[in-house]
Amino acid sequence: MITRFAPSPTGPLHLGHAYSAIVAHDLARGQGGAFLLRIEDIDRSRARETWEQQIYDDLSWLGLQWDAAPVRQSDHLTRYRSALNELWCSGYLYPCNCRRADIAAAVNAPQEGAPLLGPDGVIYPRLCYVPTTHHSRVADDMPSDAVLRLDMTAAVAALEVDKTPITYTNNGAPVQITAPQLVNTVGDVVLARRDMGTSYHLSVVVDDAAQGITDVVRGEDLESATAIHVVLQRLLNLPTPQYHHHRLIRDDAGKRLAKRDDARALSNYRAQGLSSADIRRLIGL
Ligand code: GLU
């Protein structure tokens, strides 16, 4: 078994991160497996080296050891590029020039009814979609500075999801996703952002495979993204790990913790003299 913790260095780790990291670590250790660390720093406008250093310090303080050098996503932009190239040449991507306002205007048009929400916000109304045949596509034609969207309709057709639904396991139970669910409740998500040349969805799938992750442990807030990840694994011929989406740690008012919630930052507890055993108790582990 190989698990991972994959934080973004965009702020201090809090109790929710501690929960995720400890569950992933203990799951692997309990099976004699490996626990890996990945720094998800593709958002260069928000990632900071000081936060990355603090991740190492916080995890060490929690007593969690990772088994290989941490993978830093910003060091692997070429592997996201080659996955995008593969999807582009197979005809699963199209460029999108919409501004937020264009999308909002289209989905809020009176005849459209209430806009449907997917994992990344409103379901994209395919304003920039133009039919293409993959035979006409070569890697050199892929725009390098454009937003690229997944053509979910084409993906669903190629994977024959109408005949065989996409499946994966979540917390040991089978989950099935049908073709209409993918097209209507996930839609044409962004796989390459203009400023990054990749996206969270694409990088996480490519890296989970590259690191040989067998079991993904993460908060249930990311559960709705799993359908996208499994579709990408199928399109890119990558293995699908087992998923373990866990409960979220909430503040006293029941709100989930955010990076800006400094009071629950691990560094704060550390400064107050708490131990890693105290943290485990605080989060019910
Ligand atoms: N980097 C993501 C986060 O910090 C987690 C990614 C994942 O576990 O798939 O929320």
Automatic annotation (TrEMBL):
<keyword id="KW-0648">Protein biosynthesis</keyword>
<dbReference type="InterPro" id="IPR014729">
    <property type="entry name" value="Rossmann-like_a/b/a_fold"/>
</dbReference>
<dbReference type="InterPro" id="IPR049940">
    <property type="entry name" value="GluQ/Sye"/>
</dbReference>
<dbReference type="GO" id="GO:0006424">
    <property type="term" value="P:glutamyl-tRNA aminoacylation"/>
</dbReference>
<keyword id="KW-0479">Metal-binding</keyword>
<dbReference type="Pfam" id="PF00749">
    <property type="entry name" value="tRNA-synt_1c"/>
</dbReference>
<comment type="similarity">
    <text>Belongs to the class-I aminoacyl-tRNA synthetase family.</text>
</comment>
<feature type="domain" description="Glutamyl/glutaminyl-tRNA synthetase class Ib catalytic">
    <location>
        <begin position="3"/>
        <end position="277"/>
    </location>
</feature>
<dbReference type="InterPro" id="IPR001412">
    <property type="entry name" value="aa-tRNA-synth_I_CS"/>
</dbReference>
<keyword id="KW-0436">Ligase</keyword>
<dbReference type="GO" id="GO:0005524">
    <property type="term" value="F:ATP binding"/>
</dbReference>
<keyword id="KW-0547">Nucleotide-binding</keyword>
<keyword id="KW-0030">Aminoacyl-tRNA synthetase</keyword>
<dbReference type="GO" id="GO:0004818">
    <property type="term" value="F:glutamate-tRNA ligase activity"/>
</dbReference>
<protein>
    <submittedName>
        <fullName>Glutamate--tRNA ligase</fullName>
        <ecNumber>6.1.1.17</ecNumber>
    </submittedName>
</protein>
<keyword id="KW-0862">Zinc</keyword>
<dbReference type="InterPro" id="IPR000924">
    <property type="entry name" value="Glu/Gln-tRNA-synth"/>
</dbReference>
<keyword id="KW-0067">ATP-binding</keyword>
<dbReference type="InterPro" id="IPR020058">
    <property type="entry name" value="Glu/Gln-tRNA-synth_Ib_cat-dom"/>
</dbReference>
<dbReference type="GO" id="GO:0005829">
    <property type="term" value="C:cytosol"/>
</dbReference>
